[in-house]
Design goal:
- The chain has helices spanning 3-20, 26-43, 46-82.
- It has 87 residues and is mainly alpha-helical.
- The longest helix is centred in the last third of the chain and has 37 residues, at 46-82.
Length: 87
């Protein structure tokens, strides 16, 4: 993303996104994920805990990339809706 889009994205994720979590099952899904992760973590030896942490970081990076792509797609869609569509 260019600097402007990054600034908009950062503003939305830092100041607005949380306001919309209540309209989804985000909190519940996070709680389920965290409980499963905690149970798995407790069963693993140290070497596998390192692998699990690396896997979680990779998932986090992929999730952020998907969130950025959704932001860009939404921005383009909004921009398109604002344009005149007459022939």
């Amino acid at each position: 993303m260019d600097n402007l889009m990054q600034a908009l994205f950062d503003h939305i994720t830092e100041h607005l996104l949380g306001k919309y979590y209540g309209q989804t099952a985000f909190a519940e899904r996070c709680a389920v994920r965290d409980e499963i992760g905690r149970k798995l973590w407790e069963q693993l030896p140290p070497s596998q805990k390192e692998q699990l942490e690396a896997l979680q970081r990779a998932y986090d990076h992929a999730q952020m990339a998907e969130l950025e792509a959704m932001f860009l797609a939404s921005f383009d869609q909004c921009k398109s809706l604002a344009l005149p569509h007459s022939a």
